[in-house]
Amino acid sequence: MKEHYWILAGIGFTTLIMAWLPSISKKIKVSGPIILLLIGFLLLGLGLPIGWPDPLWADEGLMYFSEMIVIISLMGAGLKIGNNYSFKAWKRPFLLVFLTMPLCMVSAYFLGQNFLFFSVPSSLLLAAVLAPTDPVLAAETQLDDPEREKEYKGKIRFSLTAEAGLNDGLAFPFTYMAVLVAQAGGWAAFDFTDWMLDKFFLKIIIGTIAGFAIGNAIGFTLDKVHKYAGIKTFDGFLALSLTLFSYGATELLHGYGFLAVFFTGLSLRHYEKVSGDYKTKMHDFIHEIERILLVVWIILFGGSIMNGMLSLTDWRGIVFAFAFVLIIRPLAGIISMTGIRDSFKNKLAISFLGIKGIGSVFYLAWAFVEFEDFEYKNELYSITAYIILISIVVHGFTAPSIIEYFKRKTEQNENESGDTPKG
């Protein structure tokens, strides 16, 4: 019985710290996930009697838990993006998704084959799971809530928020590709046409349409039932309900639920007849749920690291992890934004802050649930853990200062010019 109380006390202690963590992070200019990771190390050292990964998690449990955090974060990302961004501003996240992401994937696949000496399916899976930037661990580099967002129209935070919202869904077809190639036994028996028409085009289109349809339908309902029937809601948990409904319904309709959730939040945020105060309340509610789940995830991730997860790969995996975070993603980002009329510092910041995290773990676990006979499973988990850890530490110590620098610079330019340019 005492173990039960230890668990409650440990979780309560951690979530109590989480209440002050955003302010602490801002003050010391260190990202919150670093502090949470250290707390995870501490709780493992103290012997908190929970089911610590030893060192790997159970694939199915990891998949469902990561899935929940990612979809909640995607709803939050959609609700953050207001309509005060021009089409020109969307060019940056589109380039990050349609150029940076493929460049990173090709690089990871090539290195997986020729440096890590993985099989074709495992190299494909490595490329796919590392494609998305994370909407959860990267929360501190993203936009604020719908109303406070107007105070700072930063190119960097908008680009990273929109990229994280889009590419979590667009990475799914390539995870499917890795699974299908593995099931087929290689490229020769892989049905590329079926993959392209179904897993790429059809599921992306259904996910996008479903998201916009659900978001606008809820916005219309909120407006009309109040206007004509006097029925009004001000419950923030509607955002959580919408997250679960749009994700589940879209998956049942054969679409990508990740895309649907993001576009549901985005379209509801843009529905003008829903009050800004209510949008803020929904955003704040979903953000708090996300933070609570993040606490649990990072604590368990810390336990997995301490129990030996990082030892499941050799020096090649470690070199690859550092190269991917510090060289491949930044270089691919800068290349993709070559035609954008922007300062090199801005391009470098956007490219460098491509934080990797929980989305990658979800895709990895999903692939192993779909096909149990993947080669190099331990190595893939370990390399992904290295990349997440490197990203948490490197970006955790640099991102707050980078964001603050560009915020001050933008505010200074606005004060000098007397207005706030869009994009």
From TrEMBL:
The species this protein was found in: Salegentibacter salinarum
Its annotated compartments are: Cell membrane
- Protein name as annotated: Sodium:proton antiporter
Q: Which GO terms describe its molecular function?
A: antiporter activity
| Pfam families for the chain | Na_H_Exchanger (PF00999)
Q: Which GO CC annotations does the UniProt entry carry?
A: plasma membrane
> What transmembrane ranges does the database entry give?
6-22, 34-52, 64-82, 94-112, 164-188, 200-222, 253-271, 292-312, 318-336, 348-368, 380-403
InterPro entries for this protein: Cation/H_exchanger_TM, Na+/solute_symporter_sf
- Give GO terms for biological process: proton transmembrane transport
**Primary subcellular site in the record, as a coarse category:** membrane
Q: How does it sit in the membrane?
A: Multi-pass membrane protein
Stretches assigned to the Cation/H+ exchanger transmembrane domain: 15-402
Protein keywords: Antiport, Cell membrane, Ion transport, Membrane, Transmembrane, Transmembrane helix, Transport
